Each structure stands twice: as C-alpha cells, then as structure tokens.
Amino acid sequence: MVQADIPAAPAHRRRMALIIAGLGVHLGLAVLVNTTWRDAVVLNHFAYVPLVLAAVWFGRRAAWLALIPGLAPLALSAANLSPSPPWTDAVRALFYLAVTFMAGLLADRSRAHEAAASRGERNLRNIIESSLAGVAVYRDQRLRFINGRLIAMLGDPQEVTASPDAVDTTDSPYLGRSIWEFVHPDDRAHIEELVARRERDPSGGLRYEARLVAANGRTIHADIASYAIEFQGLPSVLVSVYDVTRLREVEARRRELSAMAREQADLLVHSSRLAEMGEMAAAVAHELNQPLTGIRNYARNATYMLEEDAGSLDEVKENLVRISQQVDRAARIIAQMRALARRSETERVPVQVNAVVRETLEFLDSQMRLAGVEVRRELDESLPLVLGDRLRLWQVFLNIVVNARQAMEDATERVLTVTTHHLPDQELPVVVTFLDTGKGFDPEHAEKLFQPFFTTKGPGRGTGLGLSISHTILQEHQGRIEASCAPGQGACFTVRLPAAGVQEYPDCAIRAATRETREANDGPG
Ligand code: ADP
User: Can you tell me the mean pLDDT for 105-129?
Assistant: First the structure.
C-alpha cells in the first residue's frame, strides 16, 4: 500500500502547531460567541480553515481533529451555554468530520499518485543508469539528459574518475551542451543529414555508426541507435550509444595482419617460382642455345652465299627469314621467363585453361624432348572459362609437369598425358589431369604430398614447396588438387576448378579471352 509522505519532523511540528493554534482560536471564539454574541455562523465556518489545512497536510488521519470543534459546542450545550439546539451542534460536528475525512482522502490519493510517479521515474532512471549503453536525450540539438555510462565514455575531466553509477547525471555539466561538440568533424556532414532526415520524418528508429570525440580528444567508434520520444513534455530524440572502438581496432589489426599474411604468401609463391626457374636454368639455357645456334648457322650460310656468290637471292632471303623466326623464338622464351619471374598482384579475371596448358607445355617443350618424354594432349575445346590468375595457374601446371619429368627419369617408357575435361554436372566442372608413367609414389605419402617441405628428392633437387603452394593457389581459386597412384604405375594429378559465371563478367571475359588469344600467339610478356 502506498503511504503518504510524512514531512520532515520540524515542518511536521510547525504544521501541527499552526493547526492547534487555529483550533484554539476557534474554541476561544466559540466560548466568546456563544456566551456573548449568541450567533455562531461565522464561527462555524472558521473551523474549516484549520481542519482542511490539516487534511491537506496529514490526510485522512486529520479526521480525528474534527472532534475538537465538533464536540466543543456539544459540551457548551450540556453546560447550557449554547444558543442553538443540541441536534444542530451534532449535525455540525458530523459535517466537520465528513469534510475533513473527504479532503484527507483526496490529499492521500494525490500524494500516492505523486509517489508512484516519482518511484516510476526513479526506476526508469536506475534502468537507464545501469544500462550497458550510453543514453542521452537531446532537443533542439542540445543535450537534455545523459546517463553515467555516456559521461564515463565521453570522459569529462571532472567526472571521469567516478564510476558510471556514482555520477549524478541530473546536474551534469554536459546538459545544455550542443551535440555537435561530441561528433567527429569528418562524420558531421553524415550525421547532420541523419538529423535532418529525423526532423522530416520522426517515425521509426535510426541505426548508424559514427565517430565521437571524447573530452580528452580521443576518438570513439560508436554504434548509435536513435528514436524520437517525448521528454519533459516536448518532442526530443533518445540516442543509445555503444562504444565499439575496441572491436574496430581489433578488426583493423586483423585486416592489417591478414594483408601481411597475404603479402608473405605472395612472396612465398613468387620465391617458389624463382626456385623452380633456378631448377630449370640448365634446360632454359639449352632452350635458348637452340635458336642461337640456328641464328649463327643461318647467318653463316647467308654470308657464305653472298661472299662466294653461291646461292640465289631467294636462298639468301630464306636464310634471313629463318634468322628472324629464331630471333622471335628466343624472344618468346625470354618473355616467358620474365613473366614467370615477375611478381604481381593476384588477379581474378576469366582465364582459358586450355591456353594456360598449351603455354606450359610449349614453355617446357625442349626440356621434355631433352628428357625423352613424349607429351600427349587431349584438350576439350568446350572447356568454360575459369575466374582466376593466369600466371598462378601456369605455375601450378609447370610444377606438376616438371615433377612428372623428374619422376620419369629412370622409366623406360616416358609418356605424359595431359587431358582437359568439361564435367558440367560437377561442382568443379573444369578438370585437368596429368598422367605420367614415372615411378609413382608410396600410398602412405599420398596425404603428405601437399604438406609444405615434404620432398622425396635429394638435397638441392627439391624444396618440397611446389605442391603445397599449388594447393594454396587452387584454394584461392575455390578449386582443388588431388593426387592418385595405382601400384606399379605412374602418378596422376587432377586439378579441379569452378567455371566462371561469364554472364556476370561479359566485358571482362571478352577482354581476358582476347588477351589470352593474343598471348597464345605472341607469347606472354
Ligand atoms: P619438390 O618437387 O620440391 O619435392 P613438390 O611439393 O613439388 O616438391 O613435390 C613433393 C613430392 O611429391 C615430391 O618430392 C615427390 O615425392 C612427390 N611427387 C610429386 N609429383 C610426383 C610425380 N609425378 N610422381 C611421383 N611423385 C611425385
């Protein structure tokens, strides 16, 4: 049950004294009026002043006081001092009692309402103060309310040491300050636009992220929700603010670290490519030697014909054309080496896998011939484009073919069959297989082949990184690489890739496909 508030003791005593004095005056006057003037009309009404005052101050309990002016005329009647008949004194006493009780009842009710309202407000304030969010209310772009959490967040120098619960937010120096003092200058235009939008349409809530500036100048990344409310009877805006600075800092650090990791991975891919090229240096020197020898021979021929007048002009011309062809060939080999040695950002463009397979085989052609390996190609011309990095896919194929050549060094039959298939029903429909007739691998090594630094080659021959990097490259392409080997037979490596959604990249596809066709003719550069 709601109890009426009892005023503090001195005020209570003062009020009681005033009421008793009023009633005393009434009784004194009663005696005087009844004995001397014999007319009590004014006197009767005077009693209502202290009684109603008592009812307003003390509620229904004040009804007891009505007995004082009510019983006094009856006592005078009993002493034959009252001019009026006893029943009128009794009715008057009842009126005093009823009026005092009713006034007291109304006063009690009104006080109970006030108490309930103020308790509700206290509860609400406690909820807002203990909330994990910083809460503020603004009107006319000035702060009208701010909770302790937000004060702690914004860190007023005078209050920052206090705990959020201990801060008296009703008298905060923040109140009345402009909201723009706390908004980061770079985010102001954006928030001004949101505030204007809220003013145009106050319905519904807004959720956005913005930077705030604390009292000490620190930038706070805040997740903010705002709603239009009525506060102190006026339309206002309630904002709840979550400090997400730590989260954003961690995210930024994570982004930085993953950029560093990507950079390191790129370096590794590149270093492994360089290592691969180092391994191929002898073969490449041989490769270059061929056109150079050709050039020398054709040049000697032409010189001899001219000096000795031994051939026709057409024959001399034919030698010069051959020299030009050999120069083109040497240039193409050098261009391919340069492309492989180049360090570049990972691309995601539509790539023709058949073209990459052809480039790889052409690049290794004389190596394979020198090693006595017959290369068979079965390329499916209906192969769709894949989205990826041509140079990296080239690196994967190069590594598989070089491994196959090395695995077939001691074999009597040396055949590498490279096949491409389009399997439209599969999740990864672009399939490239490399089947060799080499020594194969131990089934127990199958799991380890793609682990970094796993190699069965002697020191100086293998780094054990080729297949693990190929695996990473294919993961980047949302594809995969598998190795299989039947006992007594060579190894089979299968690369599976997703098809590019060409309809989503029509311009890009056309550009890349055109470039590949050109490069397949000219050689990469
Ligand atoms: P590396 O070639 O430097 O050893 P790789 O990661 O390319 O590193 O290959 C790892 C291992 O996988 C090789 O050492 C070899 O044992 C095995 N391997 C790769 N390709 C073949 C193949 N075609 N036949 C048999 N074994 C293979």
Answer: 87
